[in-house]
Amino acid sequence: PLQDVQHGLRNVQHFRYLKEKLYPNLPRAILIFTDGCARFPDEKEAFNVPVLWLICKGGNADMPWGQVIQL
Predict the structure, then answer these.
(1) How far apart (Å, rounded) are the C-alpha atoms in residues 37 and 44?
(2) Distance between CA atoms of 20 and 11, rounded to whole angstroms?
(3) What is the structure's pLDDT at 10?
(4) Which helix (H) or strand (E) holds 68?
(5) Of 6, 10, 53, 66, which has the highest C-beta tally within 10 A?
(6) Contact 49/18 with Cβ under 8 angstroms?
(7) Neighbour count for residue 11 (Cβ, 10 Å)
(8) What's the CA gap between 59 and 50, in Å, rounded?
(9) Bond into 27 cis (ω within 30)
(10) pLDDT tens across 11-61, in order?
């Protein structure tokens, strides 16, 4: 199913995919590889699914919510 998500989407669209394609069968966690330079949805858009932001070297690790790992 995740191959349906297009490359280069803003983080907001990842969570829209959860709502439109996966709800109510949500994953146990979400891992997002990003440079941290995109718009972020409200935390409620994650439907209480834990989110781990994996930030590339030199990326913005100042995430508004979730857990962060700087790569």
Answers:
(1) 20
(2) 15
(3) 65
(4) strand 67-70
(5) 53
(6) yes
(7) 19
(8) 21
(9) no
(10) 777 888 888 999 899 999 999 998 888 778 889 989 999 999 999 999 989
One-letter identity of residue 53: W
Q: Hey, what's the torsion of the CAs at 70, 35, 5, 40, to 10 degrees?
A: 90
Residue 9 and residue 32 in contact, taking contact as beta carbons nearer than 8 Å: no
**Quick check: 9 pLDDT over 80?**
no
Tally Cβ neighbours within 10 Å of residue 42: 10
The DSSP annotation for 3-62 comes to: GGSPTT--HHHHHHHIIIIITTS--S-EEEEE-S-S----GGGGTT--EEEEEPTTS---
